[in-house]
């Protein structure tokens, strides 16, 4: 009975390829939402864990602590206050569902609304994970191009009209209006108001992803779409991954109870991890307001390090903006550079990057674009990593033309 | 734009009913896998959190810490050693995938193997959550009756033969061989060997759920099916929910890499919560071996309290065994009692219970049976709760006949 068992014929159709074995992080790690290690508030997290466990540790004996399936109530109460202050959102703690990361939020909302063949509207350049999930569901994904403020509403309106002519109502418009991923764009309030007007006109729901909205250098941000619409026709998701630590898998959904109750009915996981919620709530009540600006200062400096290194190594061959927040930079290389191929060659040299095509519905447009995340590597690693990347790029594609080493000496 | 938005037409087909608002736990809580609150090792968890965060807190800045997507390596190493000692399993830490509770394990394994119309074999009485998930997937669920040692192999063999005649190969045989849920049965090694032989003969995979296997009064248990088959044709899941605390959502899958790599490819959640994994690993290395016997002593005493209370209140109208482990008792009431109706009436009186039909594929057999979980309520609450339950049962169904109050005085 210990002969090898062939399980392959048992696999459900469409099962993805097996994962590769993990061999550690690359030396120059410019992918994923990893964050700055020195800004993890270790001692404050220890203090928070100690205090909350001493006070409420015995409640770990029950699923959902004493808070029920929406998640640890003090964390929802903190969020209710924070969302009011930061994003202008009026929501009760019972209009917030804690999720195991915002990725579970994406899954739950898709599970509620999207089935094979459904149409959804997203930003042409968007979070790769959202794109992967929608493709796996067999959704018809319509990408709308972006400008410096995000979603181009002229194209959106035209697409909605085209779809209406065909009798198609999209399930939602997925947008990251505040520090867009990957472009870093922040949508102003006037455009937000116009977007809400168009969505209402076509009766389409908005799915607002605010995972990065705490990371704004100025600390000031427009009101969220959810706030401006008073929650009508908008589902909102957020996360602590970017503002505190990504390995803590804690995200949240904000929605009116009519929708949230439905989403909760789909969340068949016996609750999200309680210890992370307890420690976060305890930490955030005291320290969130101070922690985030400190983190942003580090991130803003790392962004400038990355921009300088790119300018130094690539010269005018790399085009990029100066985003006002976030942890990534969206970069255009010369047309002859296929960043999917570049990513493979770079990885062999220890540099990981997100090729544009994984982050866009417009494969041609994204072909020579890439995303670099700057939050995790230390400044010296950023500089060295960009140097290695430029070398690989020169070897594989003949650009950048100038040799950085010569220029620097 | 703040007019009410009607999202109902957007729902995906088959969306379950909205969740009800949570109103706190019932006074006499005999459902769910809740555990004994006094046995939550609060101070040791604080010490563990302090030590591990001090040493490795900065690694929270990266998804997956420094351990990759399988989960925190020291926890997998602890499990590898524990599974060897307790269950006889030889597995490397890279053959273990940490999941967000064992429910995610169920979901991932189903997602790998089961699609609408597929046949799966399960124990006739089984974990209600597993049953719900399979029904939602549209699987053809074949229940095999149980005896005092679990799965009846004569019926299993007959069913497999019938299916073979029809050209149907089941995707797996789902079994909880060690402290079966809900019957508490423990399958002996001889029957395990025979089960493996039959499974191999029909080329069917075994899905072994060991979520309760730490909770055995004697501390001694048969080797796991996974161990006996050297992992060939068996997928194994386990959990810390029952041995440490259910609100910590940490489970695990053990499988050969050919299967585990596939499952990992499906786990698109950016990892399970890191803090819980870190704290558990730190705690378990030092305290697991001492903690579990202490917990078992409490649970064994609570079981006897429940059995005594049932005997006192129901007399011979309640039939039940004396399980050698676990946190629940499976009870037969007189035929005229429909436990689904009893559950509703009891809840109104503050007593929650699991009606048998939710825990069985044989609705007629399970109609007058129920599951009571005894781990969470204190002994006095168990006694009082059973008294209230007997009152409700008498009022609704005329049994138990004798009045406990009279007998006791």
UniProtKB/TrEMBL annotation, chains A, B:
Residues in Aminotransferase class I/classII large domain copies: 41-389
UniProt keyword Transferase present: yes
One GO MF term: transaminase activity
Naturally occurring in which organism (per UniProt): Reyranella humidisoli
Superkingdom of origin: Bacteria
Presence of the UniProt keyword tRNA processing in the record: no
Keywords, sorted A to Z: Aminotransferase, Pyridoxal phosphate, Transferase
PANTHER family registered for this protein in UniProt: AMINOTRANSFERASE (PTHR42790), KYNURENINE_ALPHA-AMINOADIPATE AMINOTRANSFERASE, MITOCHONDRIAL (PTHR42790:SF19)
Co-factor requirement: pyridoxal 5'-phosphate
Name of the protein described by the UniProt record: PLP-dependent aminotransferase family protein
